[in-house]
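User: Can you predict the 3D structure for this chain?
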Amino acid sequence: MNNRPNSRPSPATRVAQAMRFLDRETGAIVPPVQPSVTFARDEAHDLRRDYMYRRDGNPTTEHAEAMIAELEGAREAMLFASGMSAATAVIDQLDTGAHVVVPEVIYHGVREQFATAHAKGRIVLSTFLPGNLDSLNSAVRPDETRLVWVETPNNPDWTVTDIAAAARIAHGAGAMLLTDCTATPPCATRALDLGADISFHSATKYLAGHTDVTAGVLSVRDAGTFWEGLAHLRKLQGTVLHSFDAWLLIRGMRTLYLRYDRATRNALTMARHFSGHAGLEAVLYPGLPAHPGHEIAARQTGGQFGGMMSVIVKGSEQTAIDVVRACRVFYPATSLGGVESLIEHRKTVSGEGFPVHPRLLRLSVGIEDAEDLIADLEQALATAGAG
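Assistant: Here is the predicted structure, written as structure tokens:
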């Protein structure tokens, strides 16, 4: 318990109060939106706070970045118009021919980005088995590998990778480690504290949390030339997060701890209920003790395993699709981390070329009543004839 009256409040408190925002003129406690595209110079013809044009950044986006840096324990955070634009900036900042190592199973959009860059000769790509440190160690090339990209837990089967061990392998080869912990945001996993050089999140998901913003964010503990290059690329590409989206993100992050805690409790309740269910072949959720990555996940998240889980339905691929079609509380929609619960047949979304089980359903468990979610999936399984 913190009894020191002059100590710095926790990130949970700081973010809930939007970094203790207070407008000195009006007393307003909600940060404003600054929509201006351009910014006038002062009387000496100098820039005010480095703002010249919105592509350079703006006060609202900067406020959201400060909140994320607080959550991450980062020196700086940089917001982009989407997670994909943040990933594109990382790829574009790499030297031509750089060797990059990524998991075989990874969010399909990022996987396609890396594969496209490899096909065009921009980078040289190698893959490793998610969660398998021996496979990662074999994939890196000492003094050649420039970037190791780790997604943990991996979407959509939620395999867990030990971030600290991956950092040791990457750094031993002279490479940077970038972690995508979108499914376990920094209220659960602070990847920079575990040794990552760059933390990546699709801020569209848990950070914003209301399915009304697209955003991506990169965070670093030590800002160097690679980071400076990313900022320059964001300016040139025009992919800075716009003011109103940044304001919505600020609003969403103020309830991050509450939303994530409720989603975690709901998902764990569902995972326990459906474990061993007659209509399911498997329940994939790191919060279950039987999950092979449970102990690592518990250590990396402080027991906050999150709201993402997948199930493999018994029967045919069409049976799995029919389960989705029969749901009445879960929305049959793509995304994750929002307050509402979503379900999707992942192969339909990711396509034939992606390595995913044909009967896997991905669930983003939201903050509704857990009993309603359980009853909905139960009736959907029965309606589809799973089992």
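The longest strand covers residues 145-151. The chain has two domains: 11-253, 257-384.
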